[in-house]
Amino acid sequence: MKTALLCVSFGTSVPAARKSITAVEEALHAQMPDADFFRVFTSKTIRRILAQKGETVWSMDEALAHLTDGSYDRVVIQPTHFLYGLEYESLKASVEEAKKQFPALLLGVPLLSCTDDLQSLAHVLSAEFPQKENTALVLMGHGTTHFSNVVYPAMQAVFHMMGRTDVYVGTVEGWPEIDAVCGQLCAGTYTYVRTAPFMLVAGDHALNDMAGDEEDSWKSILTQKGYDVECVLEGLGVLPGVQELYCQHLSALLN
């Protein structure tokens, strides 16, 4: 009997952004080198786009269905999702429904599952983006209608409490929005702003909503307010410190 490791991500259709997911997948597989590895994307739209390009990536339900042939006595699922949000709730529901079909079916937690996770990630990002004179760091999160959206303002609070009052966290589809972030920036003496995705990948949101040339992009809005803007187009998944946090969750799940 064998063990299967499923790495579950939202996914991306941006080829250059895929490396952030792959880096986390490889780190997780290195934690369980004897397990059979499988990739899962939860976004139906992204799976469809990839299928049109000739690449098949399973959904969670498809992956579990393929693994019910009795070959695996343990299936371990580690998500790369950031929050206990809507995507994670859907994932958890699929796992609960399939539990009776497997001797052991284990589901890990998202990246930011507790206060310690927020503090750990803040330290990783503080080292990656050291403080610079007259410069603010603005992190773009995705945002959600789920209550877990409170993680974004909480993350900013963690930065400020550790002395990094130059760090601000906003969202594309939640709260706080970029206007609320700008309201905080104007209270400082910043002349430069670095923006970076607070997401696993630097995908469509990072390329367009953050760094695009449209007048409603974060770069354009901040530029119009008089700041010199630098956009960092790297997802957090490429950072070894972030990969280590995911690996710690996987280790906790196995133990």
Topology overview:
Elements: E1 2-9, H1 18-31, E2 36-41, H2 44-52, H3 60-66, E3 72-79, H4 86-98, E4 105-107, H5 115-128, E5 135-141, H6 151-161, E6 167-171, H7 178-185, E7 192-197, H8 204-210, H9 218-224, E8 228-231, H10 240-254
Parallel strand pairs: 1-2, 1-3, 3-4, 5-6, 5-7, 7-8
Helix pairs in contact: 1-10, 5-6
Active site: 142
Binding site for Co(2+): 142, 173, 205
GO molecular function, one term: metal ion binding
Question: How would you portray this structure in words?
Answer:
This protein has 255 residues and is α/β, with parallel strands linked by helices. It has two domains: 127 residues, Rossmann fold (3-Layer(aba) Sandwich), CATH 3.40.50; 122 residues, Rossmann fold (3-Layer(aba) Sandwich). Helix content is 41%, strand content 18%. The strands form two sheets. It has a four-stranded parallel beta sheet with strand order 2-1-3-4, with helices on both faces. The protein has a four-stranded parallel beta sheet with strand order 6-5-7-8. Helix 5 packs across helix 6. The protein starts with a strand and ends with a helix. This is Sirohydrochlorin cobaltochelatase.
